[in-house]
Amino acid sequence: MSQQRLTPLYTGVKEHAKKDPIQFHIPGHKKGNGIDPEFREFIGENALSIDLINIGPLDDLHHPHGIIKEAQSLAAEAFGADYTFFSVQGTSGAIMTMIMSVCGPGDKIIVPRNVHKSIMSAIIFSGANPIFIHPEIDKDLGISHGITTDSVIKAIEQHPDAKGLLVINPTYFGISANLKEIVEIAHHANIPVLVDEAHGVHIHFHDELPLSAMQAGADMAATSVHKLGGSMTQSSVLNVKEGLVSPKRVQAIISMLTTTSTSYLLLSSLDVARKQLATVGKKMIDNSIQLAQRTREAINTIPGLYCVGKEILGSKAAYDYDPTKLIISIKNLGITGYEVEVYLREKHNIEVELSDLYNILCIITFGDSEKETSALVHALRELSDLHQDKIEAREAVSVYVPNSPTLALTPRDAFYSDTEVISFDYSAGRIIAEFVMVYPPGIPILIPGEVITEENINYIQENLYAGLPVQGPEDATFKKIRVIKERRPIQ
Ligand SMILES: Cc1ncc(COP(=O)(O)O)c(C=O)c1O
What is the phi/psi pair of residue 393, to 5°? Predict the structure, then answer.
């Protein structure tokens, strides 16, 4: 533990900057001297002095042997991993590395259908063949949870030759499956388990939270330190347990996918975030859990609102949950989550994590205090008062979640096929060659290779109509969509 108080990377970078060397290397702004003065004043000279590059004394993320290696080793110890790799390309970069480390062209990978777009991108890059598992849908809230152990057993029985199983743990909304059991099932079949832990960096550091990937015995986990662990945006880690995967291959792949100009601001922030999590994380997370619980209770006294708590547990896909996520169901107010998002922004200067048709999601971290949560509760109470006349019984309002589409071609084949652009309204029955998703959360409604249905078209139009950020196609207006070209007989 005492070692965990050290920050070899941050300290090394800071001491290098303190020596104030004459720099004939990039970045060309040279300690901020050549940067726009207004920006320099705003961002501060300290930050600019450590915006450095991989010169000798500062080690190299591509071949760590000095301060980066030491920082990664301390992170591995803190996360219970054999190896930790720092990512300056977000969790997306770490996810692509995980998948490309175990899959090549034609290899099968078992994945839930409600995955983040980076997983689909990696599947296209690697040429892997996705075997989708339908996630459990919460028909009350209108959100997808994780996958069940039963569905994993079935998928492995049908595809024992799969090269990997990917699990989202916890989901964006903080729900976890029984990861330990899933890992045991997959390992029994010699299949490595890769975990998208974008929303779970903190769970490793508090025993009232779901088991982390490393605690559950998974082989790899792409973990967003920047989302909930206190490092700067874009900095993440890839935790690895040796055995079914080779750390040497992981190092080679992450290096192939990473910029050669790695940011020392981001890397240093990973080092200090790890120190904070390992040394005082438990206490800080304890406070966040209690603050979130008090906020949840207060929201649940507001007519028309429901903030999800531990009563959600019990199904196989909802085995555990993270109470610091406030899923607030607003469907009984007779408005959409997006309308609530805009109301909170415009009337109260409050920004939520995400909204969808039926919910808003607010995250509570160790960066919050009672001041922020009281403002949220006050604003939500005012909103509920405004919609008093529309409040309906919770069970009365039904939600709609589309079925998973059918995959007709592998995503890579679809992506590289001959395509044509047709009217979106009349595209049912055609195979799509683009992604369509709402971001956040960035879970594709359609991926290249899937057959478009009327149901998909209606659902996308409903999301667009509600003002939600539907994106993906080249034509952002959704008049046109790119589909696989059909060959008709020559007359
Ligand atoms: C479930 C999930 N996985 C992966 C990612 C990618 O993380 P990053 O934005 O750090 O690349 C996200 C981001 O929103 C996510 O929600």
Answer: -65, 145
Residue 258: DSSP 8-state: S
Ligand 1 atom nearest the C-alpha of 224 is 10
pLDDT in tens, 312-326: 998 878 999 999 999
Predicted confidence at residue 134, as pLDDT, reads: 87
Q: How far apart are CA 269 and CA 397, in angstroms?
A: 45
Average pLDDT over residues 413-441: 92
Q: Which of 96, 99, 114, 116 to mutate to test the pocket of ligand 1 (most atoms within 8 A of CB)?
A: 116
Mean pLDDT of 399-411: 85
pLDDT greater than 60 at residue 93? yes
Atom of ligand 1 nearest to the CA of 93: 11
- CA nearest to 192, candidates 103, 126, 82: 103
247 C-alpha vs ligand 1 centroid, how far in Å? 22
Average pLDDT over residues 114-128: 94
**Pair 340, 305: CB distance under 8 Å:** no
Q: Is 198 in the pocket of ligand 1 (CB under 6 A)?
A: yes
Arithmetic mean of pLDDT, 413-427:
95
Q: Which residue of 89, 220, 224 sits with most ligand 1 atoms within 8 Å of its CB, as the best mutation to test the pocket?
A: 224
